[in-house]
C-alpha cells in the first residue's frame, strides 16, 4: 500500500491509500513454480528466464542485473535481500525491464519461407534529410536508416543538370540532389551493419535508356557479388530471407517506356487537346491513372513511383538497356486496367505492387480479400500520400492487417524520427 496527497477544494489536503494491483492467479502459479518459501532467488530467476521465457543464453549475471534493477522496490516491502517476492516479480513481468521480445533472443523465427511471408522495415524517400519539398538530399539519412534496421531503401533517380550522369532527388521539388553513386556506395558499406538479411533498393526511375545503362554499370561495379540478379525474367516465387543473407536486391519497373518517349507523347497529346504543358501542376505528372478503378484521382495522392503500363510502345523497347533490365530481381508495376487487374495473382510469376496511402484506404473497402490474396505470394508496398510535406507518417495497421510487407515510413519526420 502507498499513500498519495491531494488538495481538496483548493483549501485543505487529504491523504488516500492506494491499493496495489494484485497478481492474478496465473502469475501466482508461475511464481510458485520458480520460487521457494515465497522468495525467488537469482538461481530461480535464471531458470525462469531459460525455461519459460526461452532466453537460453541467460546467465546468473543477467538474473542478478535484473534484481539489482528492481532494488528501487525495496521501499514497497516487496524486495527481499535473498530475492524477489511475488509483487516484485509481478512488477518485473509487466515493467520496462522485461520487453515483449528480449534483444538477446536474436532471430528466432523460421526465415526459410518466401520473402513475401515477412514484413520488411521500409523507408520512403530514404535520401531526404527533412521535408518533402525543400530539404537536402544526402546519403546520411540512408546510412542512419540502415543502422536502425531498415531493409528497404528508396532512391528516386533522375538525369543530372547536364544529362550525362544520375542524381537522386525528389523530382519536381526544390530538394537539392545527391549523386547516385554516393548513395550506392553508402548502401554497400552499411547495408549489413545490424542485420545479415537482404536489403532491397527500390528505384523510382526517370531515366533515358543511355542513363539506365550507366546505372546498370554503377550497380554492378559497386555491389559485385553482393547483388542478387536472377536475370530479366520474373521470379516464379521469391527466395527466402535466409537464402538471401548479405545480398542486395534491386526492385523497379522493368524498362518498357522511357522518359523521352513519354515527353514526346505528352507533347503530341497536349498539342491535340490544345493544352500547355506548363499548365501541369508540380507532381501532377506523377499521378497514376485511377479512373478505371476508382471514382477519380485523389487530390491527396500526388506522389507515385509506378505509372500504368497501358501505353506500351514496342519501338521504345528496342532501345532498352538489357543490362539494366537484367539487374531487376523484383519486378514492379501496376500493369494494365484498374485495381482488379493490379491485384490479379499470376501463378507463374511474382511481383511488387505499390499503392499510396489513399489508394489503400479505398482499395480495402472494395477489394480487401483480393489484397490479402495478392500478398500471400506477391509484395505490396504502401507509401505516404503526397501532401505529407512535413514527412509525417500514417497509421500502418491497415497495411499490415492486409498483408502489406513494405509499409514505407518517412524516417526524417520533424520530431517523430523513426531512426
In short:
This protein is 29% helix and 16% strand. With 419 residues, it is an alpha/beta fold.
Task: Please characterize this protein's 3D structure.
With about 425 residues, the chain is an alpha/beta fold. The chain has two domains: about 80 residues, EF-hand (Recoverin, domain 1); about 290 residues, Phosphatidylinositol (PI) phosphodiesterase (TIM Barrel, Alpha-Beta Barrel). It has 13 helices and 15 strands. Strands 6, 7, 8, 9, 10, 11 and 12 form a seven-stranded mixed beta sheet that branches. A four-stranded parallel beta sheet has the order 5-15-14-13. A two-stranded antiparallel ribbon has the order 1-2. Helix 12 links the parallel strand 13 and strand 14. Helix 2 crosses helix 3, helix 5 runs parallel beside helix 6 and helix 6 packs parallel to helix 7. About 35% of the residues are buried.
Per-chain topology:
Layout: E1 2-8, E2 12-18, H1 25-33, H2 42-51, H3 60-69, E3 79-80, E4 83-84, H4 86-93, E5 122-123, H5 140-147, E6 152-159, E7 166-168, E8 178-179, H6 180-190, E9 199-205, H7 209-223, E10 227-228, E11 248-252, H8 259-273, H9 314-317, H10 322-326, E12 328-331, H11 339-342, E13 352-356, H12 357-375, E14 379-383, H13 397-401, E15 406-409
Parallel strand pairs: 5-15, 6-9, 9-11, 10-11, 11-12, 13-14, 14-15
Antiparallel strand pairs: 1-2, 3-4, 6-7, 7-8
Helix pairs in contact: 2-3, 5-6, 6-7
Which labels suit this protein?
Recoverin, domain 1, 419 residues, TIM Barrel, alpha/beta, single chain
Question: How many beta-strand runs?
Answer: 15
The residue fraction in helices comes out at 25-40%
Oligomer: single chain
Going by CATH, what is the homologous superfamily of the largest domain? Answer: Phosphatidylinositol (PI) phosphodiesterase
Total of domains: 2
CATH uppermost class of the largest domain? Alpha Beta
Distance between the termini: 40 Å
The total of helices stands at 13
Coarse structural class: alpha/beta
Amino acid at each position: 500500500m502507498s499513500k498519495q496527497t491531494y488538495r481538496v477544494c483548493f483549501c485543505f489536503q487529504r491523504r488516500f491509500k492506494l491499493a496495489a494491483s494484485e497478481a492474478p492467479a496465473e502469475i501466482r502459479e508461475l511464481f510458485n513454480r520458480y520460487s521457494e518459501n515465497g522468495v525467488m532467488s537469482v538461481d530461480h530467476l535464471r531458470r525462469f528466464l531459460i525455461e519459460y521465457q526461452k532466453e537460453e543464453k541467460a546467465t546468473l549475471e543477467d538474473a542478478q542485473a535484473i534484481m539489482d534493477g528492481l532494488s528501487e522496490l525495496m521501499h514497497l516491502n516487496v524486495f527481499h535481500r535473498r530475492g524477489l517476492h511475488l509483487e516484485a516479480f509481478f512488477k518485473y513481468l509487466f515493467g520496462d525491464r522485461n520487453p515483449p521480445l528480449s534483444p538477446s533472443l536474436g532471430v528466432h523465427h523460421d526465415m526459410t519461407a518466401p520473402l513475401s511471408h515477412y514484413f520488411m522495415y521500409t523507408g520512403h524517400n530514404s535520401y531526404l534529410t527533412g521535408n518533402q519539398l525543400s530539404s537536402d538530399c544526402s546519403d546520411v539519412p540512408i546510412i542512419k536508416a540502415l543502422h536502425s534496421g531498415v531493409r528497404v531503401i528508396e532512391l528516386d533517380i533522375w538525369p543530372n543538370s547536364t544529362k550525362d550522369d544520375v542524381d537522386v532527388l525528389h523530382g519536381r521539388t526544390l530538394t537539392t540532389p545527391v549523386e547516385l553513386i554516393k548513395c550506392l556506395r553508402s548502401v554497400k558499406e552499411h547495408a549489413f551493419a545490424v542485420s545479415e538479411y537482404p536489403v532491397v533498393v527500390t528505384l523510382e526511375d526517370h531515366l533515358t535508356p543511355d542513363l539506365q545503362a550507366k546505372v546498370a554499370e554503377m550497380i554492378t561495379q559497386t555491389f559485385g557479388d553482393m547483388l542478387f540478379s536472377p536475370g530479366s525474367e520474373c521470379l516464379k516465387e521469391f527466395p527466402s530471407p535466409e537464402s538471401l543473407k548479405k545480398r542486395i536486391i534491386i526492385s523497379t519497373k522493368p524498362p518498357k517506356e522511357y522518359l523521352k518517349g513519354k515527353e514526346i507523347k505528352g507533347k503530341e497529346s497536349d498539342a491535340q487537346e490544345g493544352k500547355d504543358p506548363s499548365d501541369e501542376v508540380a507532381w501532377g505528372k506523377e499521378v497514376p491513372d485511377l479512373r478505371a478503378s476508382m471514382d477519380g484521382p485523389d487530390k491527396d495522392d500526388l506522389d507515385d513511383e509506378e505509372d500504368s503500363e497501358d501505353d506500351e510502345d514496342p519501338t521504345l523497347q528496342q532501345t532498352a538497356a538489357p543490362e539494366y533490365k537484367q539487374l531487376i530481381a523484383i519486378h514492379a508495376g501496376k500493369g494494365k486496367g484498374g485495381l482488379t487487374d493490379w491485384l490479379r495473382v499470376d501463378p507463374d510469376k511474382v511481383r511488387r505492387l505499390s499503392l499510396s496511402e489513399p489508394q489503400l484506404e479505398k482499395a480495402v473497402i472494395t477489394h480487401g480479400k483480393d489484397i490479402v490474396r495478392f500478398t500471400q505470394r506477391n509484395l505490396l508496398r504502401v507509401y505516404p500520400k503526397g501532401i505529407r510535406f512535413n514527412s509525417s507518417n500514417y497509421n500502418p495497421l491497415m497495411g499490415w492487417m492486409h498483408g502489406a510487407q513494405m509499409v514505407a515510413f518517412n524516417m526524417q519526420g520533424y520530431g517523430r524520427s523513426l531512426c
